[in-house]
Amino acid sequence: MPSAKQDLLMGWHHGLRVLIRGSYDAAKHYTRSSDFLGIAVIATSAITGSAVFANLGSLPPASKLGASPAAGFPPHFFLQVGAGVFSVIATVLASVQKFLALPERAAKHEEAARKYDVLRREVQVLVVRLKDGVTVNDEAVDSIRARWDQIDRDAPSIPAAIYDKAEANVLRSEHQCRTASAGA
């Protein structure tokens, strides 16, 4: 029959696995979002630059086209407006990318996952010791709790949807391990 300390450590092991998975998944999410925004900025900037240079080389004098303010839109008006719109879109996307600091968020989640994983391995060792009948002192448990609290203070929050998915994946994995070990 598991002791209260073993139950506590098993619960911690589960919680750490969820935090590790959630932190790595959040890092992947922010990296993908950053990549998407980066590609969008590059594409809109390239389109804007191409349109501007294409427009510069192909503008004939207005007198040859008979363009006048009364004749409607000047030559290449829509190309100029399109270039302006893409320029604004590129600027907005670049600003959003900078404001969200997605690469920095991803790095912080990866760092938190690595720190949680160190604790998970320590907890796993303590659980094995308890199962083998070795006494685990309270100082070891208190040390893990204190370091976990510090990591939680420093770590960014995992978005709820990512956390929920990570928890479901960990539960499924734990269930598969229990089912496999029961069948062996």
Folded structure, characterized:
This protein has 6 helices and no strands. The model has no long low-confidence stretch (mean pLDDT 86). The two termini are 21 Å apart. With 184 residues, it is mainly α. It has helices at 4-57, 62-65, 77-100, 102-131, 138-154, 160-183. α1 packs antiparallel against α4 (102-131), α1 packs across α6 and α4 runs antiparallel to α5.
Computed over alpha carbons, the radius of gyration is: 29 Å
SSE order, one letter for each helix or strand:
HHHHHH
pLDDT < 50 stretches: none
Strand content: under 5%
By helix and strand content, what is the structural category?
Answer: mainly alpha
Number of domains: 1
Shape: elongated
Average pLDDT metric: 86
Largest sheet: none
* Alpha-carbon distance between the two ends: 21 Å
Number of helices: 6
Q: What's the count of strands?
A: 0
Percent range of helical residues: over 70%
